[in-house]
Specification:
- By secondary structure, the chain is mainly alpha-helical.
- It is built from 11 helices and no strands.
- The chain has one domain.
- It is globular, with a radius of gyration of 20 Å.
Length: 292
């Protein structure tokens, strides 16, 4: 049960997160207006988040988070379908590469879950430092005029915050299992609420600032990276690898990140590329026939 349930839940979560992300991005505006499409997308994404939380409660972060990365594999082709275009050969190729990387990681690393709860003080300090750093990244992005850079920065921040939330979900799940009566008296519950809210805000700002091809891959690279590092450092989750296997896993991680980014680039429509090329120069050209 604990072998397959987390895997099935994580893949299902990836599908729902992808659908919800595409719907919200399509319904997002730079002024932050909430529409019916955005609300529907939020409900679907929340359902995916619940499944992800259930997967983390049953299994290892090192198993669940790589599978959640597959959301980008579902989201970008879905966006192509909405744009009424066919997937190109390169998109299929990079999608298969991403799937192969995820499977390869799970086979080589053989991650092992743990019931260890993180030290409360260490977790609070670590999460606080990360959040402050990510707020600084977002503040810097707000001063930049480039919509692409803002979308990228918000994507990085949102992904890292969702990665932190994975650690907190795991901590809350362990607390609920071993000591449910005193659950609401512990800091990780309230840290989780704050981090998830910040992550959703950063994600939404990323949607409003630029295309899904910019922000969504950044989120999908940062989320498992941060979650897995924190899982190993604070929860004691382990992988059974020697030196050669560690090198192999490093190569797999680089290839997976490249696949995510290339999927986004390949999924970008010609109109998106053209808009990106003319958007900035247009602002520098004075209006023809203007006053003065």
């Amino acid at each position: 049960m604990h072998t397959w349930a987390p895997i099935l839940l994580a893949i299902s979560a990836a599908v729902l997160i992808a659908v919800g992300t595409v719907l919200r991005q399509r319904a997002s505006a730079a002024n932050g207006t909430i529409t019916r499409g955005w609300t529907l997308g939020a409900v679907i994404a929340l359902s995916g988040f619940v499944l992800q939380a259930a997967a983390l409660g049953l299994g290892s972060i090192l198993v669940v988070q790589p599978l959640v990365v597959l959301a980008v594999l579902f989201a970008l082709p879905m966006e192509a379908w909405i744009d009424k275009r066919r997937l190109r050969r390169a998109e299929w190729m990079w999608g298969l590469v991403l799937v192969g990387c995820v499977v390869g990681f799970l086979v080589v690393a053989r991650p092992v879950s743990t019931d260890r709860r993180p030290d409360m003080l260490v977790m609070v300090v670590t999460v606080t430092i990360l959040v402050v750093g990510l707020i600084a990244v977002v503040a810097n992005a707000e001063r930049c005029r480039s919509a692409h850079f803002r979308a990228l920065s918000y994507g990085i921040a949102a992904g890292a915050l969702f990665g932190v939330s994975a650690l907190l979900i795991k901590a809350v799940a362990l607390r609920a299992f071993y000591d449910p009566v005193s659950l609401l008296t512990h800091a990780e519950v309230y840290l989780l609420i704050v981090v998830v809210i910040l992550a959703i805000v950063a994600q939404q700002r990323g949607f409003g600032a630029g295309d899904l091809q910019t922000s969504f891959p950044a989120m999908n690279v940062m989320e498992p990276t941060v979650a897995m590092i924190l899982g190993i450092a604070l929860l004691g989750e382990t992988v059974y690898v020697g030196a050669p296997s560690a090198v192999t896993l490093g190569v797999v991680a680089v290839i997976a990140a490249t696949a995510v980014v290339r999927l986004a680039q390949e999924a970008a429509t010609p109109e998106t590329h053209n808009q990106a090329l003319v958007e900035e120069p247009v602002e520098l050209v004075p209006p023809v026939g203007g006053a003065g």
